[in-house]
């Protein structure tokens, strides 16, 4: 079915009403294909992400990882002869531009599917659009957020997730803290849907053990490392926490870690995978002699394994293709003053997302259509992506992976954390 | 500018009058705008609170709280709304928009109160807070804080515009008053001069040709009366026809 533009409606209506008795199913399919972001040479996917602003590192790194794999596939002739192309828009991690970009992608660019969105406040505002255009069979693939709205009714059916959810990440963090006797857990979070999602996860996990969040402090989305988080530190200090779980982006979380340690709150400070671990580490280590003073309190959960561990097949492939292609954000989205990381957890996630999406596109056959996209996703059963976890999808299971990995900083780099007691007791 | 002492009081009176007008109309303006805007604020806030409360039921019962936060974040974009919070039936905060944290004043207040109340956080501005129960209160309540600073700003703008208008009228009025006072003062000055002249001359012979005697107004009449009284002092020189 073509996109809901006036031109297409007219075209479909007039041509359809006159020609329907005579046309063949094949002829109609060809016409639809072009308007569904598929041509003889390309499959066009649409992305709205943060390529500018204080969280740009997330959008840029996620894109770099995905593009490394797409570049590799395209160099080998693409998916069944069609190059995978990304139509990119910058939303600066703000909901309103994200909604506007999505409308453009659907109505003007008529992309085949949405892919690689970044953030909870953005994605939660986009989901109703997908429901509105549900007759277009447009789906959102693998957004870089672990929030619940795209995992449950009424919008869950319009998205597929690959990464573990924030609920799972926070549950893992809480249980590990509880296991080492740190029961007084406070939360520092972004004052929006993302922060609330993580806050709700912590609350739920603590509640299961008869505990409550002992204190909470918030910050406004868009805060930078230069922002002061002393007020937030003071609020949390009064509650005497034994650990803090941060649900934020790297700029604000790095600022909080700095001010917390400087303010005497020397306890484990955890972050979720969304934080952008390398960006955070860079902020707290650059230009300071006391970087370890901050870093030793840090523990980050990840939804992909360490990019240093090349014994994992997908990590090895990622390392090789990142070295080979070293993608940069194209055109006017390019940020000259941003120095990308050679490897990062975020770009590895982007890479894994792209790899699975290519597999799905491949399963659509020679005549890809949105109508069969969901069916192709559900055909993924016990699929080995090379990450150490078999991936399956079904109408009841719209999240591919459950794996969680915990990392701490040692000698300026993230290493896996296996023994919480030894590190934080 | 030669303004007679008599008319200086008139000008002072005009100043005073304008002052009274400016103060009284400003006071009425402030009271009216404040009252109307506050009523409108409370009314709008109640409407918004009810909308959120109605929309929250499904989310609270069935969905993740991030959807609830996303909902209130959208309403926070409305001008004048400073904060929104939602508590459950136990008074636990389910979603809010406070940064860097929930103010003590709100933490210690009774969340079941949904009538309009005024709040003033330490170091912050005043707010009008209204609420709406969710599912008749059994699922909690929604509270919205409207920034009274916006009302003050609107009052300042309204009063400012009014003062600008009054000041403009005042300036024009002053110039007009000075011109009119001078216009009125001229014949009085001339009359005074004529009276002095009559007194100095001793007889009214020479003074009988003064142009002031030709005037039709009160100054002319007074001049002719002065001349008449001067002639009375010397009856042979009386010229009754000079008195019209």
Task: Give structural notes.
The complex is a heterodimer of chains A (425) and B (244). Chain A is α/β, with parallel strands linked by helices and 425 residues long. Chain A folds into 2 domains: 36-163 and 309-394, Response regulator (Rossmann fold, 3-Layer(aba) Sandwich), CATH 3.40.50; 166-302 and 406-424, 3-Layer(aba) Sandwich (Rossmann fold). Helices cover 42% and strands 14% of the residues of chain A. In chain A, the strands form 3 sheets. Chain A has a 7-stranded mixed beta sheet, with helices on both faces. A 5-stranded parallel beta sheet of chain A has the order 2-1-3-4-5, sandwiched between helices. In chain A, strands 11-12 form a two-stranded antiparallel sheet. In chain A, helix 6 (166-179) packs across helix 7. Chain A is globular, with a radius of gyration of 22 Å. The model of chain A is unreliable at 1-31 (pLDDT under 50). By secondary structure, chain B is of the alpha+beta class. Chain B has 2 domains: 5-154, PAS domain (Beta-Lactamase, 2-Layer Sandwich), CATH 3.30.450; 202-244, no CATH class. Chain B has 5 helices and 5 strands. Chain B has a 5-stranded antiparallel beta sheet. In chain B, helix 1 packs antiparallel against helix 2 and helix 1 (5-62) packs antiparallel against helix 4. Chain B is rod-shaped. In chain B, 26% of the residues are buried. Residues 240-244 of chain B have low confidence and may be disordered. Chain A binds chain B through residues 95, 120-121, 124-125, 147-149, 152-153, 167, 191-197, 199-200, 216-220, 229, 231-232, 235, and chain B through 62-70, 73-74, 95-102.
């Amino acid at each position: 079915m073509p996109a809901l533009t006036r031109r297409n409606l007219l075209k479909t209506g007039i041509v359809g009403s006159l020609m329907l008795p005579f046309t063949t199913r094949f002829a109609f399919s060809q016409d639809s294909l072009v308007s569904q972001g598929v041509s003889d040479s390309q499959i066009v996917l649409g992305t709205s992400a943060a390529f500018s602003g204080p969280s740009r590192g997330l959008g840029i790194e996620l894109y770099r990882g995905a593009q490394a794999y797409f570049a590799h596939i395209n160099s080998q002739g693409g998916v069944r002869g069609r190059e995978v192309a990304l139509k990119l828009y910058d939303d600066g991690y703000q909901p309103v531009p994200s909604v506007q970009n999505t409308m453009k992608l659907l109505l003007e660019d008529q992309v085949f599917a949405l892919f690689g969105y970044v953030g909870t406040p953005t994605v939660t505002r986009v989901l109703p659009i997908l429901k509105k255009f549900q007759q277009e069979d447009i789906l959102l693939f693998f957004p870089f957020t672990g929030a619940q709205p795209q995992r449950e009714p009424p919008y869950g059916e319009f998205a597929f997730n690959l990464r573990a959810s924030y609920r799972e990440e926070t549950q893992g963090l809480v249980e590990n803290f509880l296991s080492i006797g740190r029961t007084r857990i406070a939360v520092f979070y972004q004052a929006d849907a993302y922060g609330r999602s993580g806050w709700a996860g912590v609350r739920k996990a603590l509640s299961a053990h008869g505990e409550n969040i002992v204190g909470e402090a918030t910050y406004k989305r868009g805060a930078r490392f230069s922002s002061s988080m002393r007020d937030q530190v003071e609020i949390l200090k009064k509650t005497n926490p034994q650990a803090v779980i941060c649900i934020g982006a790297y700029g604000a979380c790095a600022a909080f870690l700095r001010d917390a340690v400087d303010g005497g709150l020397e306890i484990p400070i955890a972050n979720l995978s969304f934080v952008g671990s390398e960006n955070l580490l860079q902020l707290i280590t650059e230009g300071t002699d006391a970087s370890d003073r901050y870093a030793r309190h840090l523990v980050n959960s990840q939804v992909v394994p360490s990019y240093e561990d090349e014994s994992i097949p997908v990590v090895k492939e990622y390392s090789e293709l990142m070295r080979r292609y070293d993608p940069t954000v194209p055109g006017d989205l390019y940020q000259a003053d941003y120095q990308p990381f050679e490897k990062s957890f975020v770009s590895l996630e982007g890479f894994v997302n792209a790899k699975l999406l290519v597999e799905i596109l491949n399963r659509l056959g020679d005549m890809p259509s949105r109508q069969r996209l969901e069916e192709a996703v559900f055909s993924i059963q016990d699929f080995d992506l090379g990450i150490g976890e078999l991936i399956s999808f079904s109408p009841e299971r719209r999240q591919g992976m459950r794996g969680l990995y915990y990392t701490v900083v040692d000698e300026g780099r993230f290493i896996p954390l296996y023994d919480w007691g030894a590190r934080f007791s | 500018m030669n303004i007679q002492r008599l008319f200086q009081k008139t000008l002072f009176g005009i100043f005073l009058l304008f002052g009274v007008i400016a103060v009284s109309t400003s006071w009425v303006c402030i009271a009216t705008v404040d009252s109307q805007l506050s009523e409108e604020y409370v009314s709008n806030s109640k409407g918004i609170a009810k909308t959120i409360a109605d929309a929250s039921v499904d989310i609270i019962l069935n969905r993740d709280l991030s959807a609830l936060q996303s909902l209130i974040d959208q309403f926070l974009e409305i001008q004048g709304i400073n904060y929104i919070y939602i508590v459950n039936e136990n008074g636990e905060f389910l979603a809010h928009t406070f940064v860097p944290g929930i103010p003590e004043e709100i933490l210690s207040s009774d969340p079941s109160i949904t009538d309009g109340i005024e709040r003033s956080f330490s170091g912050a501005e005043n707010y009008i807070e209204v609420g709406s129960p969710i599912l008749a209160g059994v699922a909690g309540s929604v509270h919205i804080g409207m920034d009274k600073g916006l009302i003050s700003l609107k009052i300042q703008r309204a009063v400012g515009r009014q003062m600008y208008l009054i000041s403009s009228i005042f300036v024009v009025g002053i110039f007009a008053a000075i011109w009119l006072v001078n216009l009125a003062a001229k014949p009085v000055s001339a009359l005074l001069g004529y009276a002095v002249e009559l007194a100095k001359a001793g007889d009214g012979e020479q003074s009988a040709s003064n142009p002031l005697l030709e005037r039709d107004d009160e100054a002319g009449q007074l001049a002719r009366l002065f001349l008449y009284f001067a002639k009375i002092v010397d009856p042979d020189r009386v010229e009754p026809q000079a008195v019209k």
